[in-house]
Amino acid sequence: MEIVAFGVQADEKPLIEQAFRDHHEVRSLDVFLNDDTAPIAAGHEIVCTSVNCDLGASVLRALAAGGTRMVAQRSTGFNNIDLDVAADLGLTVARVSYYSPYSVAEFAWTLAMAVNRRIVRASTRTRDFDFRLDGLMGRDLHGRTAGVLGTGKIGEAFARIAHGFGMKLLGWDVAENPACMQLGMKYVPKERLLAESDLISLHVPLMPETSRLIDAAALKTMKDDAILVNSSRGGLIDTAALVAELREGRFTGVGLDVYEAEAGLFFLDKSLQAIEDDTLARLVTFPNVLVTSHQAYYTRDAVGQIVDTTVRNVLDYTAGRRSENVLVPRS
Predict the structure, then answer these.
(1) Mean pLDDT, rounded, of the chain
(2) What's the pLDDT at 121?
(3) Pick from 86, 93, 129, 212: most CB atoms within 10 A?
(4) Which fold has domain 2-99+299-328?
C-alpha cells in the first residue's frame, strides 16, 4: 500500500521513509493538505498529515470521495480536524498522543532566555562588530515567579527547569499535578497567576474553552515587565490585543513559537512575498518580541517518536487494532 504524507519537512523525510520502509511505501510531499491539494490523495487509503494541514469538512469529504479511509496525524494537537465530519464519513483518525515533552519545554525556556537577555539583538549587533551593551540588560530569574498555565507532561518539564533556576512556581490547570506540587508549585486561579508571575508559559491544548485564554483582560492583568511565552497553540492568545499592549511599551519580552493565523505561513518560505497579515507584520517589528516558526517540537528525539508512533497507528489500522491514539475509530 502507498501512503501519501502531506506537509513533510526536509529533515523529516528520511525519518518517515526509513520508518515505513519495511511496511508500506510512502510518498512524502512538502505541500500541505487543503482544498486545492486534496485531489492528490485520490486512490490512497491512508493519508498522513501535519498540524498545519486543513482537515475541515470540505477536505475530509474530498478525501473520502477519493477512497481515503484513514488519517494519521503526525502531532498531538488535532484542532485542525473536524472529528464529527470524519466520523460521519467513516474515516478513522489517529494522532500521536505522546512524544518527548522536553523538546517543547526546553524550547520554551530558550525563548524565555532569548527575550530576557536580548540574545537576538546582541547577535545581530556583533555580526556588525557593534559590541555595545546599551539596551541589552536583562534580569536574574532566580527568586522570581514562574507561572505555568497547563501542567501536563510539557508543563511539568517546564516547571522542573524553572525549579532548577530557583524560581517560585504557580500553576493553573483543571487538575493538579502531584509531581509539580512536589517541586513547590502552588495552584491558584488564572487571574492571580497572571498578576503575580514574572514569567508566564502556556502549555494547554487549544479547544473552545481555551481559545484566546490570554485575551485583552488577561493581558491587562499581567505585570508590565512580565515575560510571556507560548509554545503550545497560537489560538491561546488574542494577538491583536497583545500588539495593542506592546504598543504601550509593556512586557520585558514575548516569545512566540506559534501564531493563531499561522496556517499558510509557517513552514513555508514567504521571504519574497508581501505579508498580507498586518497583525503578524506589526508583531515582528517589536524589539522585545521573538517569533519562531512552530519548531519547539522539532528535535530528532521528538520527531523520531512522532514518526514511530505514526507507523504504529497505521499498522494498528491495517490490523484492525485500536489504541489510545485513535480519535475516531474504524467504522
Answers:
(1) 96
(2) 94
(3) 93
(4) Rossmann fold (3.40.50)
Beta carbons of 169 and 186 less than 8 angstroms apart: yes
Q: Positive or negative CA dihedral for 280, 210, 115, 267?
A: negative
Q: Residues near 221 by Cβ (< 8 Å), separated by ≥ 6? A: 191, 194, 195
Q: Over the range 256-291, which residues count as b (16 or more CB within 10 Å of their CB) and which as e?
A: bbbbbebbebbbbeeeeeeeeeeebeebeebebbbb
Cell of 138: 536583562
pTM: 0.91
CA separation for the pair 6, 270 (Å, rounded) = 19
- 179: its cell numbers: 509531581
CA atoms within 13 A on the CB side of 313: 32
| Coil/strand/helix, residue 280 | helix
- Residues with catalytic roles: 233, 262, 294
Please name the CATH architecture into which domain 101-291 falls: 3-Layer(aba) Sandwich (3.40)
Report pLDDT digits (tens) over 275-290. 889 999 999 999 999 9
Q: Tell me the C-alpha distance between 156 and 113, whole Å.
A: 18
Q: Where in the chain is the domain with CATH 3.40.50.720?
A: 2-99+299-328, 101-291
Distance in angstroms (rounded) separating the CA atoms of residues 323 and 317: 9
